[in-house]
Write a structure and sequence with these properties.
single chain, 174 residues, alpha/beta, 2 domains, 4-stranded mixed beta sheet, two-stranded parallel ribbon
Length: 174
């Protein structure tokens, strides 16, 4: 059991009513839009990121791009292998380089599809990054840790910090 106070949440489209309800439940609300750049701070962390844009996953990987941090990350979200299959490799490497690099150092298991929601949760997987597998990656993979900018990205799906003054925008849509 994880105590509610150790569960952090953020969605830029939470309404004021949703924020109040979550706070009453004792959940920790992140004060600003980190654009997925949330660090694990040395402890194992589960990220529930269903239906997020690729940039959020890429930002999360960038922020935790080290053997010690990445090995503590578990992500429930869109399939990275599916992203690899659907994108041209040059686009994946240019726009989402941390996803591209992480593919060889991760394990992924698809969650079973629910017959009622085949079109909604059909691409959801659990991803984790076993330390022995990460250690097999070439040392050069860990050297380049430039923050992603997405200047050439045509399909950017992210609500940026600057899109709302307080980080919580109940009218923003992805």
């Amino acid at each position: 059991q994880v105590p509610p106070g150790r569960c952090s949440l953020f969605d830029p489209v939470f309404s004021t009513r949703e924020l109040a309800a979550l706070a009453r439940l004792g959940l920790r609300l992140l004060p600003e839009n980190e654009e997925g750049k949330h660090g694990v701070e040395g402890s194992g962390t589960l990220f529930y990121m269903v239906h997020c844009g690729k940039a959020l996953y890429n930002n999360l990987l960038w922020r935790n791009w080290s053997l010690g941090a990445l090995s503590k990350v578990v992500i429930i979200g869109n399939s990275f292998k599916g992203m690899e299959e659907r994108l041209l490799s040059r686009i994946l490497e240019r726009d989402y380089s941390y996803i591209a690099k992480a593919l060889k150092g991760m394990e992924e298991v698809a969650l079973p599809a629910h017959p009622r929601y085949l079109d909604t949760f059909n691409d959801t997987s659990v991803h984790w990054f076993p330390l022995p597998k990460l250690k097999e990656l070439s040392p050069e993979v860990w050297d380049f840790v430039e923050e992603p900018t997405y200047k050439e990205c045509d399909d950017l799906e992210i609500i940026r910090k600057e899109d709302s003054a307080d980080g919580h925008s109940p009218t923003a849509a992805e």
